[in-house]
Amino acid sequence: MLESLHIENIAVIKSVDIDLSEGLCVLTGETGAGKSLLIDSVSFLTGGRVSRDLIRAGEDRALVSALFSSPEGELAEALSELGIDLPEGDGLLLQRVLTRDGRSTARINGRAVTQGILREVGTLLINIHGQSDNQKLMQASAHRALLDDYAQDGDELEGYRGVYGEWKAVRDEIAGLRRDVAERIRLREMLEFQIKDIDAAKLKAGEEERLTERRDKLLHLEKINRQVGLACRALCDGEKATVTALCDRAEAALSSIAGIIPECDGLMERIAAIRAEAEDIAERVREFADEDVGDPTAELDKLEGRLDTISRLGRKYGEGVEAILQFREEAAARLTVIDTADERIEELEQEEEELRRRLTHRAEELTAIRKSAATALSQAVQEALAFLDMPKVRFEVAVKATEFGAFGRDEVEFLLSANPGEPVGPMVRIASGGELSRIMLAIRSVLNERYGVPTAIYDEVDTGISGRTARKVGIKLATIAKGSQVVCVTHSAQIASLADAHYVIEKRETVEGGETRAETGVRRIDEADRVEEIARILGGLDITDAQRAAARELIAGKEGL
């Protein structure tokens, strides 16, 4: 059960705290007071999408938090499977923050969670039924999902979808292999040409780097040889002050005083090491010179031609030798697939046949569950509609066979007959606005009674109805509220008078920073204020004693339920 709700900086709501009770909680207020903002806030809290424009002007962030009573039984197990810690005896605290830059963060019992986890937890704790639900009823594609909700066939549907994915992948591969024969021939010829084109070049991995390095050396051969000569002469090949000659002179000088200064022996060893290092460096530098090049221009032409070949292939098949060779491997693999297409098709057809048998079995199981649930749902909704002043309306859930699809082999559609003697037809073409509201309430009440969540919110379920029918809708909500908490936003006095707890949403003007601003507040009202509020809803520019008397009569009527 939703025990309390805290909202900060959502549009005209600056800060609101609502303590909710068990049973039927009704929220009323003038048009434009901000009733829809409460629904939007709860939707945002439970993982719904919301625009950052909803943040109150002048504020950096919006926050919504809600405390739910401690989950028990199957609900506690489901939350535990999602990794939600449930300290014994403590409630469940959900919190979500939206910042001006569009980012949002979510926490459950103080621990950060993903939006996906928040959304899953939200669906376990609370259901929101608004005008969009009525719009969904006008879409036949939504009927299958509602029937599946009632049938609770999630495991069977997941199993079917797994096999369906495999089957579809095999069928797609077969279709790809069964392309037009002429197209396969053209593709084969193209692949053969590409492979021959690459093979003719006889490329080797790393070849381009080696060729580039050799070309660059030949282009600068004169400079290289000249600088190599200078370096070698400075190190040891020169006639005068080379490194090795200077080392010899220094070693001889220290040798003459080694008998006097013992430390000279160590220094002489270090000089000898320097001399050996200089000779080694000179030997390595000599290797940089290239004295075996007969005709550098001819070799350069040959290198440039080879690099041009690699460049030409690179423009067609990928930059660099490695990419070209990889392209060749892939082309060869594709060619093999084409050459063995008939054998592969035969293998795939056998696999497709086996998958189709499995898929058919899964689909038949799913269909059987849906048909059984459709019969039960039709009867339950029919009974609920009779209570809601639609006794002559016939409601049926039709399950018809169709082609294999992502959700089974069934086409589900809600059928309706609004008048006696008329055959049932597609509900999307027959039902009026007021009927849709009651049909959705009937369906949702049946779903809640069978597999309900702790809290259900109904947003303006009284749309298109009034009088006796609205009273029946209120009684239905009160009946649902005996098994779970129901929060209802309404404009109907007949519904509001049946509340176990009544809250009024009011918009007032406040002064902030010298500016007058609108601000929405929510307060729970007592019996005296309830009479005034329900009398206001009954209508008239001024509340009369007659309206107050009618309000008292409506409130008193709850006692007989």
Q: How are the strands ordered across the major sheet?
A: 2-1-4-5-6-7
Strand content: 15-25%
Helix and strand composition category: alpha/beta
Helix share bin: 55-70%
The radius of gyration over CA amounts to 42 Å
Report the major sheet: 6 strands, antiparallel
The overall pLDDT average reads 86
Instruction: Count every helix, treating DSSP H or I runs of 4 or more residues as helices.
Output: 20
Oligomer status: single chain
| N-end to C-end Cα span | 23 Å
Poorly predicted segments: none
Q: How many strands?
A: 15
Molecular shape: elongated
Notes on the structure:
This protein is α/β, with parallel strands linked by helices. Helix content is 56%, strand content 19%. It has helices at 35-45, 73-81, 115-125, 131-137, 140-151, 154-177, 181-201, 207-219, 221-237, 243-255, 264-286, 296-317, 321-339, 341-387, 427-430, 433-451, 467-480, 493-496, 527-538, 545-556; strands at residues 2-10, 13-19, 24-29, 61-68, 92-99, 104-108, 111-113, 126-129, 394-405, 408-417, 425-426, 455-459, 485-489, 501-512, 515-524. Strands 2-1-4-5-6-7 form a six-stranded antiparallel sheet, with helices on one face. The protein has a six-stranded mixed sheet with strand order 8-12-13-3-14-15. Strands 9-10-11 form a three-stranded antiparallel sheet. Strand 1 and strand 2 (13-19) form a beta hairpin. Helix 8 (207-219) runs antiparallel to helix 12 and helix 12 (296-317) crosses helix 13. The longest helix has 47 residues, at 341-387.
